[in-house]
From TrEMBL:
CDD domains: ALDH_F7_AASADH (cd07130). Homotetramer. It is an enzyme of class 1 (oxidoreductase). This is aldehyde dehydrogenase (NAD(+)). PROSITE patterns: ALDEHYDE_DEHYDR_GLU. Belongs to the aldehyde dehydrogenase family. InterPro entries: Ald_DH/histidinol_DH, Ald_DH_C, Ald_DH_CS_GLU, Ald_DH_N, Aldehyde_DH_dom, ALDH7A1-like. GO terms for molecular function: aldehyde dehydrogenase (NAD+) activity. Keywords: NAD, Oxidoreductase. It comes from the Bacteria. Residues 33-488 form the Aldehyde dehydrogenase domain.
Length: 509
């Protein structure tokens, strides 16, 4: 079902929304970088790249802000994040709309992304009263050993187009309560949502007397802007979300100056459909995880291993879901699959499908869908029945392609799940408790996320988010991810009158 062939302009609506969100017009109307809406293919704004001098100045200002901010007690830092959460609540519909216009997400997913920002703000406010270290038993009498966590400095945050606002908030809400300042380099494809978030942040700061100038800044541009952040000695941590190729460039540069890297790179996420699976639930889980966000989440389901006993019952149902899923204008009620980010993504998808066919794959779907007079890249999600896990299956193509394969026993399916370079997310659909436990055990999935009876995408903020191997190893959002944004000090305090040395060493002079 294709929802429509005529489509309303995105440009005038983007201007109205930016205005309502308080983004100054000169920031989006006068620059030399065109911002294109994937919804219609129109240019909806012109932003200015941040010059090298301005990036340097923003880092210096953020460092100066950090020197003040680190002295503000953490619960009062939490007050700023509480106010940011309030601003986001008030702006949810508008910011969600801007996410739709700039990144192409359907309304519920775009608003869901803003909800994720609100949730992490709430989480960080609570966290601001719970930043704690341990007290550890010492081997010496009249001594106390403890660890303290201190603010780290300026955090560089590099984000991708597919979560244009939420990923910033996972990093920044935590960084702010931890006493850090933040410089944000959004994707070149989605600078408007970043400018809008910065405007909301500045409104929160205006209501918070503790917040220093320069605590947060957005810098716009391509690779060179990211490199400035990565190479700057006053940026002790860079959190970067994007491709594995980007991570390969960023990681060693940070390592060469002993700065911290928090990397969230490619995923190639699988689901296993086991013999006892609830097929109705699994069908919905697979459909959302594989087709949702037009296959452009790093947690998107890309590989499905179906037990051979279920294949003939399940595949026709899945194929009919692929044939009937509504593809179209993401603003329209009823649309479930919006556009790809651009024509380049469409071409990469077609190349992967050609490779899959050459390797013996049978492709259903994958054809262009006429929505915006060919100006935008709409596509029917593709289901590809593969004879095995070939090279094309083992690489991540950032598009709605689901490769389906069969398996005989769970050990084989787990081995296939793990036999890719990436290690972000994974899942099993089963009602067999032994299978579920094995999948989540040490010899089960090797991914950072391993789910049972839930697809691999749609993580909540309360857990640590990230993955292993070529996914980069970083963890952000919940659990103890906050520790990445602070530095740890071990303090040993002697409250006695003698000086016993550790390990029984004698040094009497
Ligand atoms: C991403 O695709 O960059 O698990 C992050 C999810 C989201 C995060 C995805 N909460 O789908």
């Amino acid at each position: 079902m294709n929802l429509q062939t005529k489509i309303a302009s995105a440009a005038s609506e983007a201007a109205e929304v930016l205005e309502r969100l308080g983004v100054r017009q000169e920031l989006w109307s006068a620059g030399s970088r065109a911002v294109r809406s994937p919804v219609t293919g129109e240019t909806i704004a012109q932003v200015q790249d941040t010059s090298a001098e301005r990036v340097q100045a923003a880092i210096e200002a953020a460092h100066a802000a950090f020197l003040t901010w680190r002295n503000v007690p953490a619960p009062r830092r939490g007050e700023l994040v509480r106010l940011l959460g309030e601003e986001l609540r008030g702006a949810k519909a508008d910011l969600g709309r801007l996410v739709t216009l700039e990144a192409g997400k359907i309304t519920s997913e775009a608003e869901g992304e803003v909800q994720e920002m609100i949730d992490i703000c709430d989480y960080a406010v609570g966290l601001s009263r719970q930043l704690f270290g341990l007290t550890i038993a010492t081997e010496r009498a009249d001594h106390r050993m403890m660890e303290t966590w201190h603010p780290l400095g300026v955090v560089g945050v590099i984000t991708a187009f597919n979560f244009p606002v939420a990923v910033w908030s996972w990093n920044s809400a935590l960084a702010f309560v931890c006493g850090d300042s933040v410089i944000w380099k959004p994707s070149e494809k989605t600078p408007l949502t970043a400018l809008a978030v910065q405007a909301l942040f500045e409104k929160a700061c205006a209501r918070c007397p503790d917040a220093p100038e320069g605590l947060s800044a957005v810098v716009i541009g391509g690779r060179e802007v990211g490199e400035t952040l990565v190479d700057h000695p006053k940026v002790p941590l860079v959190s970067a979300t994007g491709s594995t190729a980007m991570g390969r460039a960023v990681g060693p540069r940070l390592a060469s100056r002993f700065a911290r890297a928090l990397l969230e790179l490619g995923g190639n996420n699988a689901a296993i459909l086991a013999p006892t699976a609830d097929l109705d639930l699994a069908l919905r889980g697979v459909a959302f995880a594989a087709m949702g966000t037009a296959g452009q989440r790093c947690t998107t389901l890309r590989r499905l291993f179906v037990h051979e006993s279920l294949y003939d019952a399940f595949l026709p149902r899945l194929k009919s879901a692929y044939a009937s899923v509504p593809v179209g204008d993401p603003r329209a009620a009823g649309t479930l699959v919006g556009p790809l980010i651009d024509h380049g993504a469409f071409e990469a998808m077609q190349r992967a499908l050609a490779d899959a066919r050459a390797a013996g794959g049978q492709v259903t779907g994958g054809e262009p869908v006429e929505v915006a007079g060919g100006q935008a890249a709409y596509v029917r999600p593709a289901l590809v029945e593969m004879p095995g896990q070939t090279d094309v299956v083992r690489r991540e193509t950032f598009a709605p392609i689901l490769y389906v394969m069969t398996y005989k026993d769970l050990a084989e399916a787990i081995a296939l799940n793990n036999d890719v370079p990436q290690g972000l997310s994974s899942s099993i659909f089963t009602n067999d408790m032994r299978e579920a436990e094995l999948f989540t055990s040490a010899r089960g999935s090797d991914c950072g996320i391993a789910n049972v009876n839930i697809g691999p995408s749609g993580a909540e903020i309360g857990g640590a988010f990230g993955g292993e191997k070529e996914t980069g190893g970083g963890r952000e959002a919940g659990s103890d991810s906050w520790k990445a944004y602070m530095r740890r000090a071990t303090n040993t305090v002697n409250y006695g009158r003698t000086l016993p040395l550790a390990q029984g060493v004698k040094f009497d002079i």
